[in-house]
Design brief:
heterodimer; A: about 400 residues; mainly alpha; two-stranded antiparallel ribbon; B: about 650 residues; alpha/beta; nine-stranded mixed β-sheet; three-stranded antiparallel β-sheet; 19 helices; 12 strands
């Protein structure tokens, strides 16, 4: 028994199973093991047949690709933020210089370094988790959105949603990034949104149709998306679903399933409204939400928002819980495997212990997300009202952001 | 949109600064209280009394009709005539065959790494086992009854145990004609101590944890539910030692202890029974009683911390078999003597109860320490003191984090801005962690490199030399390398305090994880490292005496020194310190430490013990971080003097 919990969709045991079934002429979705999209399976079949090197190297390539994209994102995003800051400077209060964004030449390299040294991304790559494919798609879609290419960015959002469903919500920030990037040309809003949605739907339909023709049946929809949405598998993982649905009475299962799945998406609306001026940040926040609340999260899902976080390094001085959150994530990462071992292999503790570690993991992420959103909003407030905390009757006032 | 974090900067900062100011005494009080709390748990009124949690066991109800005492005596006498292993194996096989159980043998070969000679030492052995199929069951579950077999007069200093073998054989004969077994009974006679048991368990459970080469088992039964290992050096005994400590500090379910205790001390037998055969007395003087409890609690903890089981039961625990060793003590200071007949009945009473079980033992605790034979300190009781002890480190880490965020040391509590004005410089953290982890790996592989580089000396010596040299090199190199990354010329920079902060966090988390798996080892390292790592001061221009005191404390907290003290405590508690003079006691402890390191190294490959890996890959890197931060004021003082000269 190997600890596969952080890498739920690992090529090692899912895609290989699918390939074995395919080679016997059986649809991989007939059984209950394969919950991977057809195109991924075909990709790995092609890779194992035609590539001169082992499939493992494909993941290294993907990692390099993500690192390159992050570097480009840092460059483009920084330019965009500085440009925007310049144009809005008239609105800012006096004496806000110390919280303004300065162009940092080292930031792109730092992003690459931090992504590549992150234990979560190393684990994803070494464990050959197909989460890396979804991560790559999200990063590339952000990159092309920042560069203003509608077709490419929607293609990669569609690909990410095709791979792991939840990134479907990322189309909201991607649309807003496009609008934000082209704000000088002042296109009418409706036609703009229509254009992007049409392009997204086109790519989505194309991917689904390609999958259909590749496998010859629609079975995969139920096997992949039905599996993600109805959570029939309670194999312990980093998320919050397995423990809850292991304990809940079957009678209430459907109700809580709806609640849990709506919970993932519900935050999109308030966040989209509140963060409308910072669409790239919104994408980062959504990635965190997906990582916390999705039904089968892996360590690769955490690696993505953590890799994007340095884009807003000018917020770090506002953040209060970085220490606490990083301690929590570190503790969960060390204690989690120990509890897994003691529960599954040694058998002297029970599921509650491992669940405690996953809760810690989620709490650390929530704290970090909450803290970064708070810092962003507070910095916005400071830019407009001055950085000094207002005083009321000689006492420091409390700013409530609403 | 409201924000949960609020922005009540001033209030929160005042609180944190108060914490930073007072943490030293809060932490100290917590530490003292935690240690006192832990010691106090040995008192009978603060812990729980032994009781059997699993009702299905029904201990002591079965009628015990074993009458094979004299036969066991004869078999024991026969064993004394055997001279070679082949004779022993064929004798065992013959006996078991004549009883009428299925008999199988298993051969194994183990390479003894880091042996006392220049060549690798190879050990061969043969395990003999018989399976009595259950008349009432479907061979899906089994109970193992095992005994090590040792040839007499082969020069080894291990206590003989042939009466255990003899008793097991006559018990097997008795069990053969009983019709109530619903689980298979496996009678296992393993040779070469733990190595033989490991070979057999690996073959039985289909796991591969070590490098032992073994033949596959020709016959097997179902899942091993529970196991009783028996050791009997002579036909008479005065007390029974119930040994629960398993590999890496794992323990069987407490019910298997309480069951065995209950059967042995029931009115039918009334044998003094407990851990090490002690803790049976109830002193009239409450202080003497409490002192005895503390002594015994620390002794069970010291055995658990060592992580190496004293007998074969410890290796079965890893595979979810609830196992313990019943050891007959011939020389315990009790006046009544018992014989093979009594032990046979006790054994059949225990096995009969285990046979009653309908499901795997799970009701009672898996984590406990025994302060005497009739009480236990469970995990829910001993976790709070451990948490109190470790929390001191957390407080220190928080206070360091807060202090490094302040503009000046006096601390202006009236914050003017919503953001922190001081940017914490964390650039030392990554290189320091990488260096210390790499040195952990270096120390981990050092014994192998030592053996490879020094083929002319004995492997054990080469391993120890390699280990020591690598450790010394790491001690010197790691601070020097980390200093290179301190690129600021300012002595008052906070990088080192932040490194100290993260070292405390890493130490806290790893100690917590360690104490989850092996409580006693985690507690030992917590008690010894928490105070020294807290008193480190990250200030330039300290007084030399104060710095020297920190140096002494940090050296005391280093893994080799902690282990040395661990060995001393172990020897003292287990009464194995033979010499009288202080100097020779110190030498004896050092020799024990060497043997302990070698044993940990060997058993990593022979029984899959991970204590060596935990110390070198986790605790040693942690300690190196603290060691590194210690040298920072020295660099600064040097800087200051150089600046003065330049002026």
């Amino acid at each position: 028994m190997s600890p596969t919990w952080p890498l739920r969709f690992s090529v090692a045991f899912v895609v290989e199973e699918a390939l074995a079934l395919l080679s016997k002429g059986i649809s991989p979705y007939d059984g209950d093991v394969v919950h991977e999209t057809p195109l991924v399976i075909l990709l790995f079949r092609a890779a194992s047949r035609y590539l001169p090197f082992s499939v493992g190297y494909l993941f290294l390539l993907l990692d390099v690709c993500v690192a390159w994209a992050l570097r480009e994102i840092a460059v483009v995003h920084q330019k965009l933020v500085v440009k925007r800051q310049k144009s809005e400077k008239a609105k800012y209060a006096e004496g806000v210089d110390c919280v303004l964004v300065l162009e940092d030449i080292e930031l792109p390299d730092l992003m690459v370094f931090l992504y590549l040294i992150n234990p979560f991304s190393i684990a994803t790559c070494v464990g050959q988790s197909t989460t890396l494919l979804s991560t790559t798609s999200v990063v590339l879609s952000l990159l092309w959105a920042l560069k203003g290419s509608v077709l490419l960015s929607t293609l990669f959002v569609a690909l990410a949603s095709y791979l792991s469903f939840y990134p479907i919500m990322l189309i909201v920030p991607i649309t807003m990034i496009h609008y934000d990037v082209s704000w000088e040309s002042r296109k009418p809003r409706i036609s703009f949104i229509l254009k992007i949605s049409l392009s997204f739907i086109m790519w989505g339909v194309m991917l689904l149709w390609l999958s259909y023709t590749a496998v010859g049946s629609w079975q995969f929809v139920n096997a992949v998306y039905g599996f993600i949405l109805s959570v029939p598998d309670h194999l312990p993982n980093l998320g919050l679903f397995w423990y809850f649905f292991m304990l809940v009475f079957n009678h209430f299962r459907e109700f809580f399933l709806w609640t849990f799945q709506i919970n993932v998406f519900i935050y999109c609306i308030p966040l989209a409204l509140r963060l409308r001026d910072h669409p790239a940040f919104m994408l980062y926040a959504f990635c965190f939400l997906i990582s916390i609340f999705k039904s089968f999260p892996t360590v690769g899902d955490v690696a993505l928002p953590l890799a994007l976080l340095p884009l807003w390094s000018h917020l770090f001085k506002y953040m209060r819980y970085t220490f606490l959150a990083s301690c929590m994530l570190l503790a969960a990462t060390i204690i989690g495997p120990i509890f897994w071992y003691m529960w599954i292999i040694a058998g002297n503790v029970n599921a509650n212990f491992f669940f405690a570690a996953t809760v810690l993991h989620s709490l650390g992420q929530i704290l970090l997300l909450n803290d970064s959103i708070g810092s962003l909003l507070r910095r916005d407030y400071d830019l407009l009202h001055g950085i000094r905390i207002p005083q009321i009757d000689g006492k420091l006032g409390v700013v409530r952001l609403r | 949109m409201g924000i949960v974090s609020g922005m009540e900067t001033a209030k929160r900062q005042r609180l944190l600064q108060a914490l930073a100011k007072h943490e030293w005494w809060i932490g100290l009080v917590m530490f003292v209280f935690g240690v006192a709390f832990f010691i106090a748990l040995a008192h009978d009124s603060l812990n729980a009394r032994v009781y059997v949690d699993e009702n299905a066991l029904m201990p002591g109800i079965a009628s015990e009709s074993f009458r094979g005492g004299s036969e066991a005596q004869t078999l024991g006498n026969q064993w004394e005539q055997l001279n070679t292993r082949d004779q022993a194996v064929s004798w065992l096989t013959d006996r078991l065959t004549s009883i009428g159980v299925e008999v199988y043998t298993q051969n194994f070969t183990a390479v003894f790494p880091f042996s006392g000679s220049q060549q690798q030492q190879t050990v061969h052995g043969t395990n003999v086992y018989g399976i009595l199929r259950a008349p009432r069951g479907a061979s899906v579950e089994s109970i193992v009854l095992s005994s090590p077999y040792r040839l007499l007069g082969d020069g080894s200093d291990v206590q003989p145990s042939h009466y255990g073998v003899a008793l097991l054989l006559s018990v097997a004969k008795h069990f053969r004609y009983l019709n109530y077994w619903s689980k298979d009974l496996i009678f296992l006679f393993y040779s070469e101590e733990l190595v033989g048991m490991q070979a057999w368990t690996e073959a039985y459970t289909g796991t591969k944890l070590t490098n032992i080469q073994f033949s596959q088992l020709p016959g097997r039964s179902g899942n091993i539910d529970s196991a009783i290992n028996i050791e009997m050096p002579s036909p008479h005994f005065t007390a029974i030692d119930l040994d629960t400590a398993g590999i890496n500090g794992m323990l069987p379910n407490y019910d298997v202890y309480s069951l065995s205790w209950k059967v042995a001390t029931s009115s039918k037998h009334n044998v003094p029974t407990g851990p090490f055969g002690e803790g049976v007395h109830h002193f009239a003087d409450p202080i003497a009683h409490f002192r005895q409890n503390v002594y015994l609690m620390l002794r069970t903890a010291s055995v658990q911390a060592a992580g190496l089981p004293s007998s074969g039961h410890g290796l079965l625990v890893r595979h979810r078999a609830e196992a313990l060793t019943v050891r007959a003590l011939p020389d315990a200071p009790y006046h009544k003597r018992y014989g093979l007949q009594d032990m046979g009945n006790i054994l059949s009473g225990i096995v009969r109860s285990l046979n009653n079980l309908l499901e795997h033992l799970h009701h009672s605790f898996y984590f406990y320490i025994l302060p005497n034979s009739t009480h236990y300190v469970s995990v829910s009781l001993y976790t709070p003191p451990l948490a109190l002890i470790i929390l001191g480190s957390v407080l220190k880490a928080i206070s360091l984090w807060v202090v490094t965020g302040l503009k000046n040391e006096s601390g202006d509590s009236q914050a003017k801005f919503a953001f922190g004005e001081v940017q914490r410089n964390v650039q030392l953290v990554l290189p320091a962690f990488l260096c210390s982890q790499l040195s952990g790996v270096a120390v981990y592989v050092a014994p192998h490199i030592g053996v490879w580089l020094m083929p002319s000396v004995s492997q054990a010596v080469a391993a120890l030399i390699g280990l020591t040299l690598t450790a010394v090199v790491c001690i010197v190199l790691v601070p020097l390398i980390v200093m290179k990354f301190d690129n600021s010329n300012d002595c008052h920079n906070t990088q080192w305090a932040i490194l100290h902060c993260f070292a405390l966090v890493a130490n806290t988390i790893t100690l917590t994880g360690l104490s989850m798996m092996n409580f006693s080892l985690g507690l030992l390292f917590s008690i010894i490292t928490v105070v020294p790592t807290r008193i480190l001061r990250q200030r330039p221009n300290q007084h030399f005496l104060s710095w020297f005191l920190q140096l002494v404390f940090i050296v005391m907290a280093s893994p080799p020194v902690v282990l040395w003290f661990g060995c001393l405590v172990y020897l003292l508690l287990n009464g194995q310190l033979a010499s009288v003079s202080l100097a020779s006691q110190l030498v004896e402890t050092t020799v024990t430490l060497q043997n302990a390191i070698l044993a940990a190294l060997r058993h990593q490959y022979l029984t899959g013990m991970w204590v060596y890996a935990a110390v070198t890959l986790v605790l040693w890197p942690n300690w190196l971080l603290f060691w590194t931060t210690l040298w920072r004021p020295v660099v600064c003082t040097a800087d200051v003097t150089r600046e003065k000269k330049e002026q």
